[in-house]
Amino acid sequence: MRTAVTIAGSDSSGGAGIQADIKTMMANGVYAMSAITALTAQNTTGVTSILNATPEFLGQELDAIFTDIYPDAVKIGMVSESSLIRTIAAKLRQYEAKNIVVDPVMVATSGARLISEEAVETLKKELFPLACVLTPNIPETEVLTGMEVKTTEDMIEAAKRISEEYHCAVLCKGGHQLNDANDLLYADGTYRWFNGKRISNPNTHGTGCTLSSAIASNLAKGFSLEESVERAKDYISGALAAMLDLGKGSGPMDHGFAIDNAYTKEAEV
Ligand SMILES: Nc1ncnc2c1ncn2[C@@H]1O[C@H](COP(=O)(O)OP(=O)(O)OP(=O)(O)O)[C@@H](O)[C@H]1O
Ligand SMILES: Cc1ncc(COP(=O)(O)O)c(N)n1
């Protein structure tokens, strides 16, 4: 069985972070492991508290993982402090980790800031060069380039700039567009669109976490980056189209849509 690890924050409401990642990896047929960077107290309406792991403890989690069940792919999500980012980078280099997907998580759907400004600089310096693909959303793409991203041409230009600066592929996610949900992959000087029909579902908590974990799962299974993105896009569209509606705010998606006997189907009996 292929294996993957998520290095990210825990979401107590189970919609984003570690919990979304593990559900996604499992639904995509990959054995999931986790190194938790922070505990968050959050639900569909917001984040009320964050408790970071210490760099020492995070290092020990990564040692435990990499010295035993070596992961075929790595997904990195919320890491809010520079010291934690440095620990991750050092461990990934030490263990020669492969298929690293970096989701530069900055702000939650609910509006909470999940990384300090100073840590964004460390993320760029330490982790971006190790990534095989970065998956910023449009606001994150704007922060990373300092340019406004309003049109499809802007998305292409911004993704090109990031890809050239950090020498890795960039998937600029289009979930924040008004009419479409088209994602742009820029790799090796060329680009390709992954078009998605915008699904009229207000429950988008954890879409970014889910997409990056689905990409990591497919890379772990040996698919090319393009194939991995295509499959991940199908997965996120299916999870959104299942129209789960939980909680008072922007709710989580249904990861059970692809699994026989999953909880939503059972619940209807
Ligand atoms: N309403 C929607 N219909 C279809 N696809 C969507 C919708 N919203 C987001 N997506 C898709 O979900 C994926 C994540 O994109 P998005 O831009 O929302 O990332 P994000 O902002 O990082 O997510 P998060 O909500 O976790 O912060 C992309 O593939 C995007 O196209
Ligand atoms: C632990 C954790 N990681 C990531 C996100 C971003 O996801 P979203 O933007 O969908 O809230 C989150 N809310 N919590």
Fold topology:
Blueprint: E1 3-11, H1 17-27, E2 31-43, E3 46-52, H2 55-66, E4 73-76, H3 82-94, E5 100-102, H4 117-127, E6 133-134, H5 138-145, H6 152-166, E7 169-172, E8 183-187, E9 190-194, H7 207-220, H8 225-241, H9 263-267
Parallel strand pairs: 1-2, 1-4, 4-5, 5-6, 6-7
Antiparallel strand pairs: 2-3, 7-8, 8-9
Helix pairs in contact: 1-7, 2-3, 3-4, 5-6, 7-8
The chain binds adenosine-5'-triphosphate and (4-amino-2-methylpyrimidin-5-yl)methyl dihydrogen phosphate.
Family: Belongs to the ThiD family.
Enzyme class: transferase
Domain Pyridoxamine kinase/Phosphomethylpyrimidine kinase: 11-254
Provide a short characterization of the protein structure.
One of its GO terms (cellular component) is cytosol. By secondary structure, the chain is an alpha/beta fold.
Radius of gyration, in angstroms, nearest whole number: 17 Å
> How much helical structure, as a percent, in the residues?
25-40%
- CATH H level: which superfamily? Ribokinase
**Assembly state:** single chain
Largest sheet: 9 strands, mixed
Secondary-structure element order, N to C: EHEEHEHEHEHHEEEHHH
Mean pLDDT: 94
What percent strand? 15-25%
Give the helix/strand class: alpha/beta
Between the first and last Cα atoms, what is the distance in angstroms?
32 Å
EC number: 2.7.1.49, 2.7.4.7
Domain Pyridoxamine kinase/Phosphomethylpyrimidine kinase: 11-254
Pfam families: Phos_pyr_kin (PF08543)
Protein name: Hydroxymethylpyrimidine/phosphomethylpyrimidine kinase
